[in-house]
Every structure is written in structure tokens, then in C-alpha cells.
Amino acid sequence: MNDYDIDRLIDTAAGQMIAREPERPLRPVVMASIREADAPAPRRWIWATAAVAAVFNAAIAVGVWNRAPVPVPLPSVPARPTADRALARAPVWVYSTPQAPTTGSSVGGQSPSPVRLPPADPFAIEALEAEPIVFSAIDLPPLENETVSIAAIELSDLTIEPLAASND
Amino acid sequence: MLLVRASTEQVTDGELVEQVRGGNSAAFGELVERHQGAVYRAALAALGNTADAEDVAQEALVLAYRRLDQFRGDASVKTWMVSIAWRLSLTRRRRIIWKVRRMMGSDTELDGVRAPEPSPEGRMQMVELIASMREHIRGLPPKLRDALLLTAAGDLTQEEIAAALQIPAATFRGRVRDARLRLKQKLNKT
User: Do B152 and A3 touch (CB under 8 A)?
Assistant: First the structure.
């Protein structure tokens, strides 16, 4: 085989390998993908929006629940007649008879008639009285100039003795 | 859409692009019809697998629609679409899973695309030679094989293929030349 024949052989083999058409037409598939990508954008986002809204609402609900005032029980009131217990449960009522008679100690068989007082906050906190802060100048005595006197150093004359002959 | 279908032959690619940009997405269907073969064959050349090639071609055409505003008209619409398909194909070819599957031999390699017709004994030798040559082409380095197959597809000129591959035309021609040279050497050895 000469070069020309080999080139033809290569072209034929390569052509057979690549000369193909899509097994199914791509146009409908591509156009369907395009329509799907274009049209339902709101439909795609609506679920995400709903999910975010649900999470947001749940977070708000949890926050509100945690901040809800916890009912504070009144201080224990000694036993009262049954008829008055319902009133005793009301948090705004305070009875004027703090010490109810014990069982069987009612005088004359009459149950004590509680006197209702206007609603009062039993847990009211009185305001603290604080004295106003008064600023005053601080008087500091001026520093005294101290003079440090240094005693004169007296140096005595050195006397050098001659070395001993023994050199000890 | 009727306008597009009625005047398919007269409307140029550029006019179709303008129609799509103007909001007529149906005009893009005509562009798909015209160039799906070239896009598909480019993917087939890179991937060697018909299923993958169809998948990538579809993905490339959808991507081309979405990026149509980026088409500046420097190259033809076909070259531009082929370049998109080529990049997607190379991305897929680099994936490890794709390589593994190819090694396992579960894909329909570029082989037996056209079954040999019943032929007289005198042509049997040529059929065997072509089959042998296909084997040699498959054994080429990817860059040389790509160049040879894209040229053989005949959809684009070598300059257009080079533009689609984003390489100099001289480089592309050199690859085709090298591919042919190697094939001739292998044929002479056998």
C-alpha cells in the first residue's frame, strides 16, 4: 500500500468511527429542558419560600413560648373554707385574715368572712433611695521641696607601708 | 414558530440568534436542529461513547441557550456550540468515574459503528484492514485521536476545529499530521 492508500484507509476507519447521528433527536429534549428551566421558576422557589417561612414561624413561636410569663404561685395560704379556695387561687386577691382558724376553731360556727382589698402586687419592689453623688474637689497639700543634704565624704590620706623584706 | 419553520432555509444562524434574544425561544429549536449532529459528533470524538455523547450534547445545547447573550459572533454558531460541547466533554473525560468505567469496558467504544456489509472475498481483506486501523486509532494519544476524529467528522474546517478547541490552527494541523504518521508507522510494523 502506498501513502495515498493508507491515508484513504485512515480516513475510512476514522469516518466509520465518528460518522454517527444521535440515536434520538435532541431538539425536543433540549427544548423541554429550556422550557422547564424558564417557566417554572416561581414553582421551584415556592417550596423553598414555604420552607423558610415555616422555619421562621417556628423560631418565632419558640421565642414567644420561652418568653411567656410563668404563672407565679401565691404564697401558701393556710387552709380556708372550701368556698374561699377558689378566690384564694386568684393571684390578685389578698385576704385580710392572714391566719385562718384551724379546723374546728371557728367561733360560733361562722366561717370567717374575708374582706377583699383592692388588687395589690404582693411582689412589688420598693424603689431604693440612693443619695446623689456629690463631687468635691480634693485638696492635696502641695509637695514640699525636700533638700537632701549629703554629708561630705572625708578621705583620709593613704599611707603605703614598704613591703617587708621577707616578702610574706 | 411558524415563521421559523416556514423560512428555515432562508433564515441564517445569526438571524435565529437574534430571534432568540428577542424572546422567541422556539427559534433556538431550529439552531438545535441544524447543529445537533456536529455537537454530538464532537462529544463522541472526545468520549467515544454514544450515551455519554448524547448526554453531553444535550447539556451543551441547553448551556448554549442559557449563554446565548455571550455569543459575540466572532465564530459561527456551530463552532461556538461545538466548543461548548468540547469543553463539557473534556470535563467529563477527566472525571475518575468515567475513566474507571472506560477501563471496565462497559461503554460502547468507537467501534463497529458501521457493521461491515456482506462483501465478496476480495473485499474481506479491506474490511479487516479497516478494523485493524480503528484499533490503532483508538490506541492513539487522546490529543492526536481527537484531532483525527474531529477532522474525519467533517462538520468543521480545521481552522474552525482549532477555534473550537481554543488552540492555534497550526497546532491542530500538526496533531492531525502526527496522528497519520503514527498510524502509518503502526501499519507498516504489522
Answer: no
Of B44, B111, B152, the CB nearest to A15: B152
- What value of ipTM does the predicted structure carry? 0.80
Q: Which residues does A contribute to its contact with B (CB < 8 Å)? A: 1, 3, 6-7, 9-27, 29-31, 33-35, 37-38
Triad B8, B35, B167: Cα angle to 5°: 140
A84-101 confidence digits (pLDDT tens): 555 555 555 444 444 544
Residue type, B177: R
Q: Which of B87, B74, B84, B81 is nearest to B28 (CA)?
A: B81
Q: Does B114 touch chain A (CB under 8 A)?
A: yes
Q: What angle do the packed helices B121-138 and B169-189 form, to 10 degrees?
A: 130
Dist. CA B121–CA B130, nearest whole Å: 15
CA dihedral B126, B130, B132, B134 (to 10 degrees): 180
Whether B98 shows a pLDDT value over 70: the answer reads no
Please give the C-alpha separations between residue B172 and each of B4, B133, B134, in angstroms, as whole numbers.
Answer: 36, 21, 21
Q: What is the pLDDT of residues B24-54, one digit of tens each?
A: 888 999 999 999 999 999 999 999 889 999 9
Find which of A2, A26, A36 to mutate to test the B interface (most B CBs within 10 Å of its CB): A26
B contacts of A15 (beta carbons < 8 Å) = 152, 154
Q: Which residues pair with B130 in a beta bridge?
A: none
So what's the pLDDT on residue A109? Answer: 47
**Is B25–A14 a contact, with Cβ atoms under 8 angstroms apart?**
no
Question: How close A49 comes to chain B (CA, Å)?
Answer: 25
Q: How far is CA A111 from the centre of its chain?
A: 53
State pLDDT tens for residues A1-42.
788 888 999 999 999 999 989 988 999 999 999 888 776 555
